[in-house]
Amino acid sequence: MAALALSLLLCVVLIAASLWIKGQVERFLFRWRSIPLLHAANIVAVVAIVAVTYYRLGGIDVYLRDLADISGFWYVFAGAMQLILPLYLLACWLLARRRRREKKYTRSKDKKVLYINERYLARRHRDDYRSKTS
Predict the structure, then answer these.
(1) Which of 101, 98, 107, 91 is nearest to 22 (CA)?
(2) What residues in the chain have per-residue pLDDT under 70?
(3) What's the pTM?
């Protein structure tokens, strides 16, 4: 039972770290364009780490060369996938909601700034911002 609890804790930490790394990779390499393949890579990496950790904490030795022979590992891998997928989707939804809320401005299709978000300005000045133009 302790192995499951520690694996769940590790799962939450790894999801947060992998989403942060994914955001940084998109920011530096793809200029904030969303790349779905990075989500798939994140999920597979987190599932593999959690499954191996569960095996190691459960007292079962797992070696990379023996993974093809261990049929039980793939059941744990599938179980970890069922554990991680809802948590990952929830974390992605919360992160997208936060990004949308903290957006500084709205752009048109031709990439011109239409207007600056008043909530952003109010948050920046820490008072009740009232626009002089509206």
Answers:
(1) 91
(2) 32, 60-71, 113-134
(3) 0.70
